[in-house]
Design brief:
Belongs to the peptidase M18 family. Keywords: Aminopeptidase, Hydrolase, Metal-binding, Metalloprotease, Protease, Zinc. It comes from Marinobacterium rhizophilum. The protein is of the alpha/beta class. It has 2 domains: about 280 residues, Aminopeptidase (3-Layer(aba) Sandwich); about 130 residues, Aminopeptidase i, Domain 2, CATH 2.30.250. Helices cover about 25% and strands about 30% of the residues. The protein has 11 helices and 20 strands. It has a 9-stranded mixed β-sheet with strand order 1-2-3-13-4-14-18-16-17, with helices on both faces.
Length: about 425
């Protein structure tokens, strides 16, 4: 478990954006012998072969073909997660020159908790598109990797009502301070200089970018016995890492697949999101015959892994009294009568049995009946491809904060259950 958590923290630290997370996953997959496939090429999938493909550089699907069995007879074991997290994104024309300071305008991505973004050591990372000196277009990942920005709080002396329910105006309160500037600065020129300093040559002009702010504080273990994990982007890079670890460490001859989609935090409606056709396209290539593919899906199951709300000791009244998951007390099965989660009694029982075989405890989460319920890629993917599914996750605190908290044991236990899921001979 300690080795698992060390690798997990290294993955989180190296993945400030979905682009970096997918790049990290590609490295691990290639090291394990998986073959990269481009969606632009014809595919020839071999029995027992292991493959992966990406879309937009921010979504990835990795899978193992069955060695001997036919997919339509054995079914496919699928785990799903998402690569994106709520954050602040740099606007296309971000430069603000005010009172001698260079600031950047930002846009809020997803349902971010905004208060924790103030007074943090922030950096900038993402993908940059540019024109090369020979006229061709190219892209590069960029990570400043050091504190370059901050959103300073206003002193309480100048805002005595700050504790009386003052809301945050995202347009006026969140522009970040990048430095002092006596002259007008060109942000794209700054990006070009940073890319060149990091070894990218031949840049004529930066054309566009998808860049996010992130907290430079490294992941850490916390607690008297180091029983907690603190990091940015636990929702949901934690599940991406768990799913990948389970896939790479599963000894199986069955068909096994991991899908990690972008854009879950903003509704999943994109070419790279769960509501897009990426997973369906891969399944069509795995098994082109429509009837055979339907037979496969009828024998398959999808486990959607996305973190759950642990019961906060200071706000226990926000939970249903019988459904308050505790950190380090096992993975959580998420249930909602209105199908905000994909769990059914059948798929829940299947997961409980897997966990029992691994001697891993299981918890349940149901939102209070008088509160709205969030959702995941589970119901979307299940509806898109027509497969049995359930929603599970590791319990956590501070979901959608700039720094989140989970139990050090829960991720390891969930990986153990997912390894068994990938190797399970029969899905019922």
């Amino acid at each position: 478990m300690q080795h698992f958590n060390r690798e997990l923290m290294a993955f989180l630290a190296a993945s400030p954006t979905p682009y970096h997370a997918v790049a990290q996953m590609v490295v691990r997959l290639e090291s394990a012998g998986f073959t990269a496939l481009s969606e632009r090429d014809a595919w020839r999938l071999e029995p027992g072969g292991r493959y992966f493909t990406t879309r937009n550089g921010s979504s990835i699907i990795a899978w193992s073909m069955p060695a001997t069995a036919k997919l339509e007879e054995s079914g496919l074991r699928m785990v799903g997660a998402h690569t994106d997290s709520p954050c602040l994104k740099v606007k296309p024309a971000p430069e603000l020159h005010r009172h001698g300071y260079l600031q950047l305008g930002v846009e809020v991505y997803g349902g971010a908790l905004l208060n924790p973004w103030f007074d943090r050591d922030l950096s900038i990372a993402g993908r940059v598109s540019y024109r090369r000196s020979d006229g061709t277009l190219s892209q590069a990942l960029l990570d400043f990797g050091r504190p370059v920005a901050v959103i300073p709080s206003l002193a309480i002396h100048l805002d005595r009502e700050v504790h009386n329910g003052r809301s945050i105006n995202a347009q006026t309160y969140l522009p970040v301070v990048l430095g002092q500037a006596k002259e007008k600065a060109d942000f794209r020129a700054l990006l070009k200089a940073e890319l060149e300093a990091q070894g990218t040559s031949g840049i004529e002009r930066v054309l566009d970018y998808d860049l996010s702010l992130y907290d430079t504080q490294a992941p850490s273990m916390l607690g008297l016995e180091s029983e907690f994990l603190l990091s940015a982007r636990l929702d949901n890079l934690l599940s991406c890492f768990i799913g990948l670890d389970a896939l790479l460490n599963s000894s199986t001859e069955q068909g096994a697949l991991l899908v990690c989609n972008d854009h879950e935090e903003v509704g999943s409606m994109s070419a790279a999101g769960a509501q897009g056709p990426m997973l369906a396209h891969v399944l069509e290539r795995m098994l082109p015959a429509p009837e055979a593919r339907q037979r496969m899906l009828a024998r398959s199951m999808l486990i959607s892994a996305d973190n759950a709300h642990g019961v906060h000791p200071n706000f226990a009244d926000r939970h249903d009294g019988n459904h308050g998951p505790l950190l380090n007390a096992g993975p959580v099965i998420k249930v909602n009568a209105n199908q905000r989660y994909a769990t059914s009694s059948e798929t829940s029982a299947f997961f409980r049995n897997l966990a029992a075989l691994e001697e891993v405890p299981v918890q349940s989460f149901v939102v209070r009946t008088d509160m709205a319920c969030g959702s995941t890629i589970g119901p979307i993917a299940a509806a898109e491809i027509g497969v049995r599914a359930l929603d599970i996750g590791v319990p956590q605190f501070a979901m959608h904060s700039i720094r989140e908290m989970a139990g050090a044991q829960d991720s390891w236990n969930l990986s153990r259950v997912l390894r068994r899921f990938y190797a399970e001979v029969s899905l019922g």
